[in-house]
Give the backbone structure.
Amino acid sequence: MTEVFATADLIDAHGDALASCETQFRQFGARTAFHGPIATVKCHEDNALIKEQLSQPGEGWVLVVDGGGSLRTALMGDLVAKAARENGWAGVVVNGAVRDVAELATLDLGIKALGSNPRKSAKTGAGLLDSPVAFGNVVFAPETWLYSDDDGIVISEEKLDVPA
């Protein structure tokens, strides 16, 4: 989605109805503000499920990846991110590392991650799809709504009106 909004304004308007993620992520994509309903993947140093999910039609959704905070291997690089963009995903939040950061910065896709590492991940398919994941003192449940900008990430049980 390309609507203009500010997470600080959303918190001011909705208060404690919104959860605010305490994890400090870095921006990697060219789209610095994004929002959409959440899909989840939980994995550890293995990106096969991420690639599988982002190869499906995204329809403005945001994939939240709980990689356990590992920075040992990258869970997403330029090829997977390009697939996400081509398939209509609004963004990806990775509690872990990404790679190919110069290329990621050119993509019209919201991408937040903890950091980067050039080492690629395993591809065995280990992990869980569409189950709640938690980090940053927030639970990211499938089908709840994520709003992200330079100030951070907030989660809402329902879609919020944002100015067009």
